[in-house]
Amino acid sequence: MLVMFRVSTAHWLTDEQFDGLLKFFSDYREAVDALAFFTSNTHTPLKLEGACRRLKRLKNVMKRTREVLGIRAGVNVLATMGHHEENLDGSLDEPWQRVVDAKGNECRGTYCPSDRRFQSYIRKLYTLVAEAEPDFIWVDDDVRLAGHKPVIFTCFCKRCIKRFTLETGREFTRETLTAAFNEAAADACLNLRQRWLEHNRSVIAELLSIIEETVHFAAPDLPIGFMTGDRFYEGYAFSRWAQALAGAREREVYWRPGGGFYWDDSLLGLVEKAHDVGRQVAALPKRVEVIQSELENFPYHRLKKSVHVTMLEAAAHMAAGATGIAFNVLSQHSEPLDEYHPFAEATASTRPFFTALHQHLGRRPVLGIHPAWNENLFIAKGWGESWFDSPSITDTLCQQYVLAEIGLPVCYSRFGAYVTTFAGATPLAFTDEELKEIFHDGVLLDVPAWYALDHRGFAHLTGVRPTAVIERDAVEVFTDHPINGLYKGRQRDCRQSFWFKPAYCLEPVANGVQVLSEMTDYRGRPLGPCLIAYENELGGRVVVAGYYPWFLLHNQSKSTQVKRICAWLSRDRLPVVVESFAKTVVWARGEPDEDPAIVVLNASLDQIPRLCLRVRSSAKDFEVLSLNGEHATLHSERGADLPPNYRRIVIEDVALWNIYLLTCVKG
């Protein structure tokens, strides 16, 4: 099931609109493998009597869809718990527990999943869904504990607090629990936060198990799919949740990784969403094979996202790990679909590219540089501060993906990582054993991460310690070091007076430390080293960056320096590096010991006349396929300046905001 379209209630509740839907897709049968019909158009749970009427109609709608279009048809339950406060007067309104945040506020549109009365409703609802005889069921992404507007982090109702008290053996109220989460930098605080994440994992797993038992009692072999986003607060227990949906008989489970890129006002949001998808796919067990990325143009205003960007986004999601696409791009109103023909036409014409991505990438691992995260990452949020009121841990993590913008391959798990990066307090989420393993290889980190490592007792593996904090007027200057080469003496001024971030002087505390950059003020007076490389006692290589490590890396000298640093950290094992000075995103896919398949995205409004890639491969020839179907064979060159396991590939005339698949020719 490569391509699915999700369909609003507006297009199936009446015969007239449903006939229009069938006519729309009858011209594009090759574009779509399945339709998923939403149960509602607003984001709060349905009353059971209304759900019953709709699902009786949907049974006939799905049957006719199969007969007329010859494709699969299923149900997308838009609201299980409820997303936000919307259409409250027309939705389920029972005296059951709603989700509550740490300050006692509630979302009136979302029910607490631990309330037994609500769980009884879920059993009745999903029985109705299964009895409608769909080919599959999708559980939407309201099954979460964070982000139910107007509240954020839940659930702190009396029932959930009591449950946590029983799980921990400690007596809590909402107020005392919140205070305990915020003990300043104490290990006890981190341990308690981790227990809360485990509690959240269990709450979600319990609800999914209820859905699984209900569905498979009525329809024993029916596949269940689950839509997610980044679920750090919920504990990112994707393997556990997938098992809950599979049940004891190991039924097939689908997944729909999602995130927010609704319109193309800021095109790099496309890449950010692809990284979101990549993390979610990396957390899934291998047994989950149908992974259709959520591609959503909410609220579906036709001109808010171009057709080209929509197709490009779908391809980027597959490059990052998805095996298919779930388009949610059609109007949510009772109106003709004429203006959406270009989407269906483009999907049909681009399908060969999607098929090639599916065939060559599948669930092969993503290889490269790993901005470090794991299922416990949320415990590091607000280290030493308020857990819930502090800056986003996702923002801390995602700033490291800037490396992808300058032509370095990123990956989404420790498997396949040749270099690991740490930002902020993220090292606190890892065990001692994990940190030791990571520091056997290459690590790039910022100074806040150094302080987290120091708290854990691992700072000695970096070879440095921060000393002075420079608040203003600092400029980075490259030293005379082989990594810098001809760029020695180059400067990078990140304008602290405009984009304030503290800069840190780094003092060597071990033998063999190498200074890559120093700082001066605007009068040229030295301030101290700010970028230092070191080979530690474990045999790993480390670089600590004290001056704007994840910001403004986009000039030629700095981007080249960073690429060389990462190559050095990896001991020349990175699967691909973009040698050209170009805003190009690359994904490398494959097992660590095989030639990778490579996806290249020109993330710029400039055409690239000549794009040079350094690829770790023995293949002499590569097939290149573009989004629009253009195909060519490229010959790679060995190159005396390359490490022995690399070859160079040149792609001519790389179109602006276009994407390409490169695969090696065997033989």
Description:
- The chain is of the alpha/beta class.
- The chain has a 13-stranded mixed sheet with strand order 16-15-18-19-20-13-12-11-22-23-28-25-26, sandwiched between helices. Strands 1-2-3-6-7-8-9-10 form an eight-stranded parallel β-barrel, surrounded by four helices.
- Helix 2 (48-69) packs parallel to helix 3.
- The radius of gyration is 26 Å and the shape is globular.
- It starts with a strand and ends with a strand.
Please state the average pLDDT score.
Answer: 96
Share of helix, binned: 25-40%
Structural class: alpha/beta
SS strand fraction? 15-25%
The tally of beta strands, per DSSP, is: 28
End-to-end separation in angstroms reads 31 Å
The shape, in one word, is globular
Largest sheet: 13 strands, mixed
Strand order of the largest sheet: 16-15-18-19-20-13-12-11-22-23-28-25-26
As a whole number of angstroms, the C-alpha radius of gyration is 26 Å
Query: Which runs of at least 5 residues are low in confidence (pLDDT < 50)?
Result: none
Q: What is the tally of helical segments?
A: 15
